[in-house]
């Protein structure tokens, strides 16, 4: 009988195989580092690569650009941050949207021309455009990194433009939301009391201007019973006469004009709801 056959000795791994393993590991490390650097520094290629907190500065900048582009011949107000949850980034991934509005008041028939002026004054990088039709006059622009600028004429003499992030990953906004000062509350109370109403709330919204400074809107809401005095009889004594002529809008329920101190707008609804804004620009 023959004894057990010994297994052949193992062949040590070749030098070439070891080098292939080292190269593969090194290449994986390089790709990981490049991916991290790209994620941190390169501009996004899809919207959900940036959270609403990371997109918030672009929204603020666009609001400031729009406020300045509206020019000195209009009255405007800006809104606070509006964060809405419940949108879907993917079928299994939820997100949030961040939006801010710029509301511009002009002459009853001047809305389409105002859109043209805003488009001409926005930065070239926004690639802003305007479309005039029989039923609608609209504006479109891109503030960068998938932050959209959309708006148009919503009523005679009224233009509303919305800056929005679209659906993105939720995140803190990374900025302290401004709160009204004691003087802001006094101004709001004076306005609504003069209109024959009572004050419910005062809010503040701010955005940076492109050349420095801040556009700031103080908004007051409240209610009253009855029709009250004509709006012009109330506002002009509080804020001074209108600059450069009559008010831009002067109707029973809406009054908008530029005073010596600020841009003022008041909306008095038939149901007694009152809304007033005072805006200072840069």
TrEMBL record:
TM regions (residue ranges): 19-39
UniProt keyword list: Membrane, Transmembrane, Transmembrane helix
Record flagged with keyword Transmembrane helix: yes
Protein name as it appears in the record: Uncharacterized protein
